[in-house]
Amino acid sequence: MRRVAVAVAVAVAVDMDVETGLTCDSLTHAALYMDCVTGAAWTFLPATDPDIRAMVVVE
Length: 59
What we know:
Layout: E1 11-15, E2 32-35, E3 41-44, E4 54-58
Antiparallel strand pairs: 1-4, 2-3
């Protein structure tokens, strides 16, 4: 069996509804879990911060 190395890039964008006054503090149970058959895993848990209204995370 031939093994090939693969690189994966993940970008996650969070943009809250500014007109209603929501901030990232409203994200009480938000999470993104990614698992691979190789056993690799990645988890994104956004910060629940009332001063943040948008964010972009790249891994």
